[in-house]
Design goal:
The complex is a heterodimer of chains A (74) and B (136).
Chain A (H helix, E strand, L loop, with lengths): L4 E2 L1 H8 L3 H8 L3 H8 L7 H11 L3 H4 E2 L2 H7 L1
Antiparallel strand pairs in A: 1-2
Chain B lengths: L1 H35 L6 H28 L2 H30 L11 H17 L6
Helix pairs in contact in B: 1-2, 2-3, 3-4
Classes of the chains: A mainly alpha (74), B mainly alpha (136).
């Protein structure tokens, strides 16, 4: 499981898009979108930028590596 | 566009895969049948038919690697993991069976069967990692 959490599922649902529709717009397979949403796979930087651009947000708004939470816990 | 690349990668794969398999079947079946017509097969003919049978599989490996390079990043990861595990299983079997053969524990093994064994191991590994959707 990835340590990087993301809000893609919520953003996608907000837009009323299916995984396949999002995959089409991002240029990846539906399996890729599913793997990213479920935290099984962390996208590359170019794909993360493409996702952020598509939702009109910054990468940090979508992906959270929980560094701050880890630092706070220490 | 990456999506076009992903979709065209699958299309390009299948467009190459089917003719390669047809050629392979023709070469192996027709080649074997033709060799049976000789009482003593000439070595040059045996070698030519062996080459004709191998070339489609060599080209298939090229098509497979081309697919890895053209597909999307997640699919590529799954495919490469499956390929690596399949290769590790096959090479392990080659070492084990090779030593068993060398020490006369088992009889001679046809080296040919390691090829199909690799593809079976690769397919099953990819299926185990990524599910049915991750097969090309």
């Amino acid at each position: 499981m990835s340590a990087v959490r993301n809000t893609i599922r919520a953003l996608r649902t907000e837009q009323g898009w299916s995984q396949a529709a999002l995959a089409d717009q991002l240029g990846v397979s539906r399996q890729s979108v599913n793997a990213i949403e479920t935290g099984k796979y962390d996208p590359s930087l170019p794909l993360a930028f493409a996702i952020a651009r598509l939702f009109g947000k910054s990468i940090e708004e979508i992906f959270d590596d929980q560094t701050e939470a880890k630092l706070a816990a220490e | 566009m990456a999506q076009q690349t992903f979709k065209s990668a699958k299309k390009r794969y299948w467009r190459a895969f089917i003719p390669i398999m047809v050629l392979y079947l023709i070469a192996t079946l027709a080649g074997s049948a033709f060799l049976l017509t000789f009482e003593v097969e000439p070595t040059w003919l045996q070698a030519t038919i062996a080459l004709a049978c191998s070339l489609p599989m060599i080209f298939f490996l090229y098509v497979q690697i081309r697919y890895f390079l053209e597909t999307d990043e997640y699919d590529r990861l799954i495919q490469l993991k499956g390929f690596a595990i399949g290769a590790a299983i096959t090479v392990s079997a080659i070492f084990l069976l090779g030593f068993l053969q060398m020490f006369h524990v088992i009889d001679r093994i046809e080296v040919f069967w390691f090829g199909p064994a690799f593809f079976v191991a690769y397919g099953l590994s990819t299926y185990a990692i990524g599910g049915r959707q991750c097969l090309p």
